Amino acid sequence: MGMLSVVKWGHARIVFDRMVCRDVISWNTMINGYAIVGKIDEAKRLFDEMPERNLVSWNSMLAGFVKCGNVEDAFGLFSEMPCRDVVSWNSMLACYAQCGKPNEALALFDQMRAVGVKPTEATVVSLLSACAHLGALDKGLHLHTYINDNRIEVNSIVGTALVDMYAKCGKISLATQVFNAMESKDVLAWNTIIAGMAIHGHVKEAQRLFKEMKEAGVEPNDITFVAMLSACSHAGMVDEGQKLLDCMSSSYGIEPKVEHYGCVIDLLARAGLLEEAMELIGTMPMEPNPCALGALLGGCRIHGNFELGEMVGKRLINLQPCHSGRYILLSNIYAAAKKWDDARKVRNLMKVNGISKVPGVSVIELKGMVHRFVAGDWSHPESNKIYEKLNEIHTRLKSAIGHSADTGDVLLDMEEEDKEHALPVHSEKLAIAYGLLHLDSKEAIRIVKNLRVCRDCHHVTKLISKVYGREIIVRDRNRFHHFEDGECSCLDFW
């Protein structure tokens, strides 16, 4: 129950009351109690003072580090353990999966199997989460086969993890198959499939599922409405989004939170309804969070509203002085308005504050191996072949369609020719070139990128899909883009 005062009372009794048994069980209970309430330093002090330890002692301390998201200390303790059981391995896997270290989770699973530890439900849920994070479809498919071969029950927890994995790996059809086959579907399962439809831009399917959810007697919760509002935002459905926000409290008794308002602000801002977005911010019963203001700033950037963008951008930098994206977006707004001195001042402020730009990273999975690329990357062993392929792509696009780079997103004070040279080495272009080199012509090229796709890369990917006759699926920070025959599923709205 997280009651720190009771934990301290129990600790005092164990220390001072001679009638209380001070065996390894009581020590373990106290470690677990402090870990649950987040007092990890007290838990570690008790662990260090224990006169004797058993496996439960080590697992309790490990679980405490995992709960706090302390990956380094968790792995250090895990490495020191004199023996491990499946609980130990699952705790470390969960730590990696929850803390954004999917590659480490998958590598640890290989070690786990090598020493003969049999995976459990908790194991596969953590691994499916890692696959979802990476967009590693092949690994996810192999894991699904492993689940079936080893007769691990596909209950609501495992089934929901599978739905999430397939949706985030770009296979929404397989996510739907798993969902439909689930015998028991709780609200989390429904929310996961609706959110999956949203990031793929299938708003009609999301609406259908929302209706079926209610017909099945499952009450929507606040997460359901975040998913539905996100679906509306990805499709530019302004009226539907506003109606959903309005009916939350009146029809479902759910008071909108800042996340719900943020979705509608994003919807309005991207549709160019910046005044309406500002009005909504003014009527919110709470202060807008940085995500909501960031959505408004993004709308200002798209639609060229310099005055509003400058005001919101400065406010965001004050709220989040360590967030590199806020500086860059404000700098780009200045640059788009030809305010070069102001743009440089913002970039210099980043340097003064020691803020570095988050690099664009794209990953592609090939035969179970995940390959990572950053902009201008030459670290890959096949870099020479990749850049040769990029030159070939550029030549073919220019001769077939007369493509020239869209330099709108390279908002620096430089000549257009220099801007054009800055674009072809974005990370997703490197990943696509690598996919063209190695994947069969009938296989889809699947890319996962940590940032939003720029306009030029989006346009170039559409052209590549047409000229090379390839299906290309890109998951960026906001949504999925399915490119085929020169078209994108987002309809250029992202």
From TrEMBL:
Q: Which UniProt keywords apply?
A: Repeat
Give residue ranges for domain DYW: 402-494
State the PPR repeat positions.
23-57, 85-119, 186-220, 221-256
Which family would the database say this protein is a member of? Belongs to the PPR family. PCMP-H subfamily.
Q: Which PANTHER family match?
A: (WILD MALAYSIAN BANANA) HYPOTHETICAL PROTEIN (PTHR47926:SF473), PENTATRICOPEPTIDE REPEAT-CONTAINING PROTEIN (PTHR47926)
Q: What is this protein called?
A: DYW domain-containing protein
